Each structure stands twice: as structure tokens, then as C-alpha cells.
Predict the structure of Sodium-independent sulfate anion transporter isoform X2.
Amino acid sequence: MPTNQLLIRIFPGIKWLHGYTAQDAVADLIAGVTVGLTVLPQGLAYATLAGLEPQYGLYSAFVGGIVYALLGSCRQVTIGPTALLALMTSRHTGFGLNSGPDYAILLCLISGLVEFAMAVLKLGALVDLISLPVTVGFTSATAVIIGTSQLKGLLGLRGGSGSDFLNTMKSVFGNLHNVRRGDLTLGLVSISVLLLLRKLKDIKLATRIRSVRLQQLLSGSIWVIATGRNALVVLVSSGLAYSTCDRTDSCPYILTGKVKSGLPSLALPKFDTVILGRNDTKVSQNYEQMLSELGPSMFILPIIAVLGNVAISKAFGGAGLSPTRELLALSMSNICGSFCSSMPVTGSFSRSAVNHVSGVRTPIGGFYTSALVLLALGLLAPYFQYIPKAALSAVIISAVIFMIEFEVIRPLWRCSRRELLPGAITFVMSLGVGVEIGLLLGVGADVAFLVYRAARPVLSVSKLHTINGISYILVRPKHSSLYFPAIEWVRTGISKALSTHGTAPVVLDCAHVHDFDFTAARGMGSLHKELAKMNVPLFLMSAHKDISVLLKESTSINFPTIECPDDLECILEQTIALAC
């Protein structure tokens, strides 16, 4: 294999360099900078949501762009911190001292390794076990949890946000008398401005202007303001806090605090840490204790990351993308990121949408986004300390409220009410117990329904007559497979039909049945013997050749078959004549 083909196979991003023009570079630069202006405030906010210092959000924002540009296959996808993964990470970062970053970085590495194993074993199809109602229930519950976790920052209450919905709400209501007016006012105004600016891009003001150049200028300005609304709100609120808090002894806002400037150190994730125990004593933890603490998150978090990333890739890149390649790119983004103090990352739908509408042409746009983040870490970090926490909470709340998908409930109620139950279980249990348990119970409910349908197939049983008046009982399974849990159900259904309609030949219509297993075949053999003792013939109609072979090999019985419905009357007449 030629060297260039080998490099393209290992690093698919290299293929984008072929025919890469100056126009492509300009388009990628504009899109990369636009996404960068979006990820800067989001990264700071999501790190706070994860219970980490703000700089860790920026550490998580630049590695994924570089790695995905080399390994990814969808130009619109942007890899970085997200609200959902930040929330799941926050469950392990509240033990004090420096254990929070240690747990988050180790979880990032383990997530990457699990995703890499899924890519090697081609297990990306596992995400298909998570149905749409369960996904909706999960994302809606996490949106509610994320939103409520930011109420403390919005109201100016001290203390961590946490990831427990019930305890967070109890804490907020118990401290309403400590609400700070400055933070509350700034937070509500910020949310209002963010929602208005989000809606601004839908207003067609430019159509009222006759000049084409002015139309383009106004449309471009509105688009820039609406797209960069997060950065704009954070910038304005930071300027307000700087001018207010730098000149007075008392500050009306709770600020983010000092943000460490400079690049993260390149180092292995730590496999031991120190936490605060009872009575503020320092307690050392080894890697076994850390892994025990991470528990199910080591597997559920990567699956959720894969689910989101594959969904984004399909939404923007179509069905031609390789899930295995996307899994590999995501896994390497997490593995490489863990060496740069990153928390777990995945594709961000909101930033990918910004990337798309910004006109990105290749994944190289991720390089420009990463460069902007690195520039901010090097030059702007000292100024991040003036960002009010209320503004960051407003950024998160205004983003996650659109994750709550009420619109799915009505069509589900009309079309398939059964599917509402797994979604409702996921939503309620995620709020009451935890997002991991809620997701597992929702998937478990879905799997239980699938098993029930396989064990209790719908049977259409009717007594019919041929043209010559010969009666027979037609049993038509409406499922394509008959497996071992279902065979007893089929036997019981046929027995009930004989009790109800009287003794008559039984015709099992296999036109829609394409698969039997060994246990089901042996069950059919037992049914054939039981009916033979009652002098009731059993016919298989329109049975596939493979099914006939399986039944004969497993039971040593030659089941009488009817090739097609047209032969039914003739064979029944012959059977009755022989019986007489």
C-alpha cells in the first residue's frame, strides 16, 4: 500500500488537504472563530457545572478539535464539553482538595478507552438499544437537573450546585432568604437577552430595505450577534462586574474567581488522589477505590457520548458516514484530552449547528477553534475572573431549556402509548434516583417489552370454510420469528381454538414467519404429536424451505406442507378422504 494511502487510512482528515483552496481556508477560519466564540463561555460554564475550576472547560475545548480534524469524517461536528457529560462528571468531583480534577480526568481516559474498545469490536450498534422515548426522557430529565443545578448561581447562593435534583431543590428553597438581588437581576436579564437574541435571527428585518448591500450588511450583523450571543452576554456582564467590583469594597455579584492562565501540563492522568474525609481529614485513595467510586459512569457516560456523537454525525453528514470511524475519532479525542487535563467530551449539537450555518467546508475548522481557545488561555485567562457566575448560569439555562422535548408526547400518545412508559420511567427515575439508574431502568423497560412481544406473539385465529364446505382453523402469527419463549403460547392458542371452534384441521400460516429456533422446533414436534392423538392434522402453509428443514432435522417429523393458499382446498379434501 502506498505511503499516502496508508496515511489517509490512518488519518482520514488528510484527504481534506487535497484541493484545499484559499476560499476553503477563509470559510473554515470564519466558522472556526465563530464556534470558538461560542465554546469559550460554554466551556467556562460547563466546567463550573462539572464542579471543576473554569479553566478545565477550556482545556477540554481544544484537544477534541485537533484530533477530530485528523480522524473525523463529518466536517460539521465539533468535539468538546457538553452540559450532559458535565452533569454526569459532577457526580464524582465533590470530594474536596484536588480530587475533583483527578476524577474528571481519569473518567475522560476511561471513557476514551471504552469507546475505543467499542470501535474495535464494532459495538456502535449498542446505542440502537436506546429508543427515542428513552432518549427523550433522559435528555429532558438531565435538562431539568442541569437547569435546577444552576439556580444557586442564578440566585447568588453560595455552595456547590450538585447533580441531585431533589437535594438541590431542597437546598434552594431552604436558602431563599439569602438570595442576592444583584445576581438575580443580572441572571434574569441575561436569560431574557439570550432568548431574545436567539429569536433575533428568525426576524426578517433585511427584507424591508431596498438596497441589496445594506440587506447583506444587516443580515450579516444580525447573524453575528445572534450566533455570538453567549460571548456577548458574558463580555458585557464581565465589563459591568469589572467596573462595579473593581472600584467598590462590596461586589453585588458572585464572580467566577481566578482562572489559571497558560496551557495545561502534558501528563498522565492520576490513578490515586486525596479526598477530604470526616472532620476534614485527608484520606488517600488508590486506583481501585477511584474505579469503585466511578462505578457505572465508566460505561454509561461513554455510551451516552457515543449516542450523541453518532446522532449529530447522521444529522449533518447523512447515512454514508462510518460509525466505527466516528467512534474511533471520539475515543482518541478523550484519550488524548486526558493527557491535557480534559474532562469527558463528545460532539455538541448546538456548536455543530453553528459550525454548519457558518459555512464550514472541512474539519480543519476545528484547528482554528482550538487556536482561539489556546489564545484565550494564554492572554485572556486573567480577565475571566470577573465573569459573574449568574451570567454563566444564564448561558447554561438558556441552552438546556430547549433540550426538554414536550412536542414528542402528543404524537406518542396518539400513535403508541406503550412507548410513553419507558420514557416516563426514565424521566421520573432520573430525577428521583439518578440519571444512570434512570437510563438503565428505561432501557430495561424497553427490552422487557421486546422480550414480551417475542414471548407473546399476536396470533390471528379464525375458523374458515373452503368452497366445498370443509372447515379448518387458520392460525396466523403476525411476527417474523417464533423463538422458545413463544412456542408454549402458540400451543396454548391452538388448544383454545380447538376447544372454541371444535375439532378441525389446523393450518399454521408461516408466510410471515422466517425464523425458528431449536426449542421452538421441538415444541412444534410435541404439538404435532398431541394433535395426532386427537386425529387433528396440522399443516404448515407457505413455510420457508429453511423452516421445513429445521423442523425435520430437530423432530424427525415430516410436517405436511401447503405451498400456497390455492392448494389448500385440494390437500384438505385429500386428507379427509384418506381419513375416511
